[in-house]
Amino acid sequence: MPRPARILAFGDNVVDCYRDENLMFPGGNCLNHAVFARRAGAETAYAGAVCDDDAGRLIRRALIEEGVDVTSLRIEPGQTAYCVIETPGGDRVFVGANLGVSIIAPSRSDFARLPDFDALHTGRSSHVDAWLPHFAAASKVSYDLATVHDHGRIAQVAPHCFLISLSAGGVPREEALALALRARAEGARWSLVTRGVEGALLAGEPGVFEAPAQPVEAIDTLGAGDTYIANVLVGLLEGRAPAAILTAAAAAAAKTCLTRGAFGHAAPMSVDLSSMMSLEDIYRTTRPAKAPEEA
To answer: Can you tell me the distance from the alpha carbon of 246 to that of 277, in angstroms, rounded to the nearest whole number?
Structure first.
């Protein structure tokens, strides 16, 4: 029996604070990816930074309970990253956030581990684009561009990617397909475009494959996209047929929508929100992790 795929998720984490419910859940793109890929059958590790506070301890405990390797989880002074969410009328609204200590550059020990993994996953929220050529030289790279559809950014990232993922909910199919094909033309081996309730499409050398979403009475859609990406990456690394990969990913994403938070593990909200910034201010002021020549 072949061994499971091995994936290292590097970068962002938060606790998602549901302020109107006084609950917090572990989350963040890369953190979620480590958990969902583990649930999909891969062996996973998470490299990121938290603090020794209630939020950081929740994140570490949840990862361990999910079977994710936390050897490369750093404990730093400061505050663990958080995102504040409200759900008026059942709709999820991001109110503000603080990235805390979550934006980090890879260490020598992180790179020393890379040969043990089949792929590394990161994304735009981790702010480590300067490291992509170095990651790609050591392992296959999965990168989540999320809602960034800028052609220049795609051209910058795609050449380093085994899998590049974009979110295009509400976007016409023709535009979603054009995004997938552009990412492929810029050098990505595979490009995934998730389209919310419209399903997803996956483009690669064998062609373009599509699958509908699985309808479900969603409790919380947080983490559904991360679930989809993680399942697609695991499936590709295992060499499964693209159509079967998409079907399994859709089923897993639908299951995530039935869970509060990205992957559960609720705790009473215990975060100092006095440092909360608007999302606009975060995007405007966040500096990338140290570049290779600075580290």
So the answer is: 37
